[in-house]
Amino acid sequence: MSVRPIVVSGPSGTGKSTLLKKLFAEYPDKFGFSVSHTTRSPRPGEVNGKDYNFVTVDQFKELIDKKGFIEWAQFSGNYYGTSIDAVKRVLEKDNKTCILDIDMQGVKSVKKTDLNARFLFLAPPSLEDLKARLTGRGTESSESLEKRLKQAEVELEYSKEPGAHDKIIVNEDLDRAYQEFKDFMLANE
Ligand code: 5GP
């Protein structure tokens, strides 16, 4: 039987990608990333097929119609989705622990599936800090920034609900957060 998948969520800009990159670099044979589909444009440095499968809205909708997604959602004006194939590839072909980086809607959807995932939430020290990080990253238009900050508040509220996540890590200090992150990841059954 394969190990339980791990769902990492948390507001855009909290450092999920940074922590995941460190983890994949340290444990390349142990963890595999579920590469989502998205209709948003690639950011500088993002690689198609590695960070995301970048697709058009038509291609995305085609996959919805074909029932190719485990879950999908609209976030900040774009479509994002976890395909059945993306998870299968990690679990069956690569035989690694599958990690999903998805938003709160995805978390709720995955809870309704039989994936039996564990849920980790990464929180910013504060909303002000998150705003500063997202602004500093320079990847978002002011419209996208506003949408992401609004969504961050919703995600933080949800994270306070009992049982929403198995573990919450506040990313204040990167090294400390990574240690906690790693401990949770390696505690898989
Ligand atoms: P970004 O555009 O910053 O890469 O991602 C925006 C949000 O979409 C993040 O919260 C990220 O976790 C989420 N996301 C990425 N892939 C998926 C997916 O396949 N499904 C869902 N529901 N959310 C996703």
From TrEMBL:
Residues 3-186 form the Guanylate kinase-like domain. Signal peptide: none annotated. SMART domains: GuKc. The keyword Phosphoprotein does not apply. Keywords: ATP-binding, Kinase, Nucleotide-binding, Transferase. Gene3D superfamilies: Guanylate Kinase phosphate binding domain (3.30.63.10), P-loop containing nucleotide triphosphate hydrolases (3.40.50.300). Its EC number is 2.7.4.8. InterPro entries: GK/Ca_channel_bsu (IPR008145), Guanylate_kin-like_dom (IPR008144), Guanylate_kinase (IPR017665), Guanylate_kinase_CS (IPR020590), P-loop_NTPase (IPR027417). CDD domains: GMPK. The keyword Kinase applies. GO terms for molecular function: ATP binding; GMP kinase activity. It comes from Magnusiomyces paraingens. This is Guanylate kinase. Belongs to the guanylate kinase family.
